[in-house]
Write a structure and sequence with these properties.
The chain is mainly alpha-helical. About 45% of the residues lie in helices and about 10% in strands. The protein has one domain: 2-enoyl-CoA Hydratase, Chain A, domain 1, CATH 3.90.226.10. Helix 3 (about 55-65) packs antiparallel against helix 8 (about 140-145). The protein is flat, with a radius of gyration of 15 Å.
Length: about 150
């Protein structure tokens, strides 16, 4: 996931069902998220099932979610439907299942020119999520994702 968050081309998730725990984390590592409108939830359910949320995941959520969405996600184990996730700002669009893949492909085609200069696009992501800024300091998501002992 540390590689995905700083991958040097635009990345897109098409969430076609539930994205819980690491699935939600993976989706948040991409640049743009589209979600099936009628079914499925995004959720960090660790607290609800008696588990501690790993520091890497917590740092990622803190960076990618608004303050209120972060609290609801990590402390209240909120299950976000697609319309709620769009309203919260961490999913770009909710689409019917039959339009989800085509919508993701259309978004990818629109963003593809940004990845033509991989060095520039990658260095921009590094500045946001990588080597220099707080996201990659010892408690930042990219650093923690890259450095996690497996």
């Amino acid at each position: 996931m540390g590689r995905i968050i700083t991958f040097p081309v635009p990345t897109i998730s098409a969430i076609n069902g539930h994205a819980f725990g690491a699935g939600f984390m993976l989706a948040l590592c991409t640049d743009v998220r589209l979600m099936r409108a009628d079914r499925g939830f995004c959720c960090a359910n660790e607290l609800a099932i008696g588990m501690r949320i790993p520091d890497e995941e917590l740092a990622l959520f803190r960076h990618k979610l608004s303050g209120s969405a972060f609290f609801d996600t990590v402390q209240l184990a909120r299950r976000w439907s697609a319309p709620e996730a769009v309203a919260a700002g961490f999913v770009a669009e909710a689409l019917p299942l039959e339009d989800l893949l085509a919508g993701a492909q259309k978004r990818a085609e629109a963003l593809a020119p940004l990845g033509a200069n991989r060095e520039l696009f990658g260095s921009s992501k590094e500045r946001i999520f990588g080597e220099a800024p707080s996201i990659n300091q010892p408690h930042g998501a990219a650093h923690l994702l890259r450095s996690r002992a497996h």
